[in-house]
Amino acid sequence: MAAKPTYEELELRIEELERKVFGRKLSEEALQASAECLDTLVSSVSNGIIVYDDKFRYKLWNNFMEKLTGMRAENVLGEIAFDLFPHLHEEGIDKLLERALAGETVKSGDTPYHITGTDKTGWVHGLYSPHVDPSGNIVGVVAIVHDISDRKRAEDMLRDSEERHRLLLEVSPDPIVSYNIEGKTIYVNPAFEQIFGWSLDELQGKRIDFVPEENWPETKEAINRMLQGLKIQLFETRRLTKDGRILDIQLSSSLFFDRDEKPAGNIVILRDITVQKRAEEELRKAHDELEQRVEERTAELVLINENLQQEIVDRQHAEAELAKSKAMFKAVVESLPFDVFALDLDNRYFLQNSICKKNWGDLIGKCPEDPPVNKEASNLWMDNNRRALSGETVTGEVVYDRLDGGRNFYYNIIAPICDEKKKLGIVGVLVDISTLKE
User: Strand, coil or helix: what is 161?
Assistant: First the structure.
């Protein structure tokens, strides 16, 4: 029979038990603090944390997962994952969970999700690891879920943007070339192949040798300006085609940069202006020719104007002389002591001196059809006029018995009026010789 412990031994045992109790209490407090810290960490972390048991029932569903899916933890915990979210089968997540439960750590690809009950949609990426207890036994799966919806949207937007830019490059009527920073070809569009003759397969990764020797200095200067960060706008130069033709071109170029804002290459847009340059040259020649013709025509017009001015002066002088001559002629005709008259080709009087008007009345504008003489004298009068109009000069004595009963004796001269080419009328003179006859 064992001996009873002494009082001292009992005191020692009690002290030891108290130390163990105190130590356990400290451990429990530390464990509780650690659990609270872990719970706070799990709740505040910016990724989804899920814990499954070995039947794939949810054991942990943190705040991030609640916000991501719209499903609260109390509605998820204890539920079998595939019953609650059938899309896990469709996306192959069930296979990844089984592998993690078997001891692997596996990653999912970019996985779309759609929560039927909350209509939440997006994209996630998951990391699945075995959940091991303190004894080293696998008791479930721990999943870390990353929300990549923003990245996927950005990728979709980038893809759409790249597609739009690609279409713009493909349909651009101007040749476009993209070089890397070493000057080697990354891309040429269909317009480049159509105009210059080289395809992308021929040029990719190579330099394009299409700068004529005489255009290299200006091209190097433009490249240096571009590498300094300046944009090259509407720079006119020349380039060779694959078949050796030289084209006049207008180009614009600018650098593009990588993610670190370092120059990664440049894009060049070229425009074939050969036809335009030829048209400009033809227009310049036509303009010069027109200027020459204008100068010649102007000189001609100056000369014509000078001649015209001289003609005007000469005509004014001639008109003045003619007016003077008419005045003198009229004065002479008026001063003659016998009848003077003239008729035009229409047999109308256009000239009478004062004595003629006094003797026969005002006949200007009238025809000599009803002269104030008897019938016999009238017939003689008309006959003499017709003879003169036909070109004959009629002379001789005539007797005109007037209707008032008087008789006059005249010496008659009627002659045609002619210029160098045609007759203009007749002129007549009647000299009264009645007194002489008596």
Answer: helix
CB atoms within 10 A of CB 225: 14
Strands (E), 295-406: 339-344, 349-352, 394-401
Asked if 203 and 242 touch (Cβ cutoff 8 Å), the reply is no
pLDDT-wise least confident of 14-18, 23-27, 350-354, 379-383: 23-27
Q: For tokens 């100056």, what's the residue?
A: 302
Cα angle 234, 235, 241; round to 5: 105
Task: Indicate the length of the chain as a whole number.
Answer: 438
Query: Rounded to 10 degrees, what is the CA torsion of 102, 67, 74, 76?
Result: -40
pLDDT digits (tens, 9 = 90+) for 210-222: 989 999 998 888 8
Written as one letter, the residue type at 408 is N
Given the structure tokens 């872990």, which residue do they identify? 38
CA-based nearest residue to 253, from 277, 228, 216, 289: 228
- Tell me the pairing of strands 138-147 and 111-115: unpaired
Find the helix or strand (DSSP H, E) in which 246 lies: strand 246-257
Element (H, E) at 434: helix 434-437
pLDDT tens digits for range 234-253:
888 899 999 999 999 899 88
What does 2-51 look like in DSSP terms, one character per residue? PPPPPHHHHHHHHHHHHHHHHHHHHHHHHHHHHHHHHHHHHHH-SSEEEE
Residue 423 has pLDDT above 80, yes or no: yes
Position 421, amino acid: K
Token reading at 170: 């493909």
Beta-carbon contacts of residue 87 (< 8 Å; ≥ 6 apart) = 113, 114
Cα four-point dihedral sign 121, 125, 129, 134: negative
Q: How far, in Å, CA of 50 to CA of 70, rounded?
A: 15
Name the residue among 255, 126, 244 with its Cα closest to residue 183.
255
Are 62 and 43 spatial neighbours (Cβ–Cβ below 8 Å)? yes
341 close to 366: Cβ distance less than 8 angstroms: no
Q: Is it the case that residue 30 has pLDDT exceeding 60?
A: no
Task: Specify the pLDDT at position 39.
Answer: 57
Q: Name 400's Cβ contacts closer than 8 Å, sequence gap at least 6.
A: 373, 377, 380, 381, 407, 408, 410
Separation of alpha carbons 324 and 318, rounded Å: 9
